[in-house]
Amino acid sequence: MNFSIAEENYIKAIWRLQQSDSNVTTNELSAELQTKPASVTDMLKRLKEKKILNYEPYYGVKLNTDGKKIALGIIRRHRLWEYFLVEKLKFEWDAVHVIAEELEHVSSPELIERLDHFLGFPKADPHGDPIPDSSGRMETTRHISLHQLKEQQPAVVSGVNDQSSGLPEILRQKKISIGTKVEIKQRFLFDGSLEIKIRNQPLITLSEQLAKNIFVTPL
Amino acid sequence: MNFSIAEENYIKAIWRLQQSDSNVTTNELSAELQTKPASVTDMLKRLKEKKILNYEPYYGVKLNTDGKKIALGIIRRHRLWEYFLVEKLKFEWDAVHVIAEELEHVSSPELIERLDHFLGFPKADPHGDPIPDSSGRMETTRHISLHQLKEQQPAVVSGVNDQSSGLPEILRQKKISIGTKVEIKQRFLFDGSLEIKIRNQPLITLSEQLAKNIFVTPL
DNA sequence: TTATTTTTTTAGATTTGTCTAAATTATAAT
DNA sequence: ATTATAATTTAGACAAATCTAAAAAAATAA
């Protein structure tokens, strides 16, 4: 079956919300996609017709097996293009998300297989998010946000939010990148800011906002 | 101003037809785009609103200066992507046209400038068609089809039809590629077929159909 | 030059994806 | 348990891009 760009965007959004939430509501989708709830309802009815999700009026929506497979195909295209944009075209990673959102809808399977090969079958995109293989399998790097990390618990930076711009600049300044070893030394309840230790450098301060956009894997 | 994918396809089609025809008719466009003449009329009225072409009911259409600039931007994107697909992803050139028709609508100017840089600022796409620079200028390689070449007139193959599939296979077999020196030795009026000479090889026969899809620059 | 054919446009309908406003259902609060 | 609030759906409208059928204009042929 074939999906329009609008449909693909809904599928992707449902998949993303479903990761944390299992059952996705109309309002959540409406916020995620910047459309009105009424439009979401319309689209969910159409996608239900296409048998890629379970939708019960008033009770939210969930992708079925087919729907998840389609979603992972879109994610795969998105992340491969992001990798291409950063590795080959030398974009900063905060600039690539918007462009990849367009490229991901180009629908030639052979294009994607060749792109994957050209890029050397990367396992993760520039934000640290895993790239599904052609059959939809991907590493489940279960990372949490640095904000959720326990104090004194060593961890490695494994990703950053792929939607937020301006992140590379501040991370460069703070000398944080994917792979950096970090540990929370102190947490201020007043503003949620953190004092963290990086290798043998002096303590640095991160705002709550920043810590929420950095993902880590505890060691 | 911003154009939809449908609008861009019309602009590109008008530009292409305008090359040989100056004044483009509704029916020509309808044939080129595989739509009904009535749909063409509708779209021409909308594009006239946007002031990128001159359209007089019953008297055809012509892109104005702005329209040509937009068209050349689309052509630029198309041809750069074709070059990428062949040179980097190792597609055969008859496979790339359809994919490039999708990629050409991805609308980030910075993407295209970086892609151009990454590819080394190529002057022509894999079919020999010149790539406009970022301000819309391009080499006017005035090539003619091999079918139109005069007998005994030496020429160099400078391009092939970018829309026809199966061409690389037959050209590989006949040992013809861009840059090959050719000369027509004999033309048969019966079926339009040609006997041509390539370097120091024995004469080979090309069908009229094939000769019409090969472009040459007379020497 | 008049009639016929072809081309083009107009009128009205359809699909996709969106919206607003109103109605309905579910959830939370008293 | 009833009411108020919040979430969701329905109904009806709209813009973009297409279509069919009919009307109008231009080109061609008798």
Write a concise keyword list for the protein shown above:
two-stranded antiparallel sheet; DNA-binding; 8 strands; homodimer; Arc Repressor Mutant, subunit A
Short description:
The structure is a homodimer of 219-residue chains. Chain A has 219 residues and is of the alpha+beta class.
Please write out the topology.
Two copies of one chain form a homodimer.
Chain A: H1 5-21, H2 26-33, H3 37-49, E1 53-55, E2 61-63, H4 65-87, H5 96-103, H6 109-119, E3 144-145, E4 155-160, H7 167-173, E5 181-187, E6 194-198, E7 204-206, H8 208-212, E8 214-218
Antiparallel strand pairs in A: 1-2, 3-8, 4-5, 4-8, 5-6, 6-7
Helix pairs in contact in A: 1-2, 1-4, 2-3, 4-5, 4-6
The structure holds a DNA duplex (30 and 30 nucleotides).
Question: What would you say this structure looks like, in words?
Answer:
The structure is a homodimer of 219-residue chains. Chain A is α+β, with helices and mostly antiparallel strands. Among the domains of chain A are: 5-63, Winged helix-like DNA-binding domain superfamily/Winged helix DNA-binding domain (Arc Repressor Mutant, subunit A, Orthogonal Bundle), CATH 1.10.10; 144-218, Ferrous iron transport protein A (FeoA) (SH3 type barrels, Roll), CATH 2.30.30. In chain A, 42% of the residues lie in helices and 16% in strands. The model of chain A has no long low-confidence stretch (mean pLDDT 93). The interface between A and B is medium-sized, with 19 and 19 residues. Chain A binds a DNA duplex (30 and 30 nucleotides) through residues 4, 6, 25-27, 35-43, 46, 57-59.
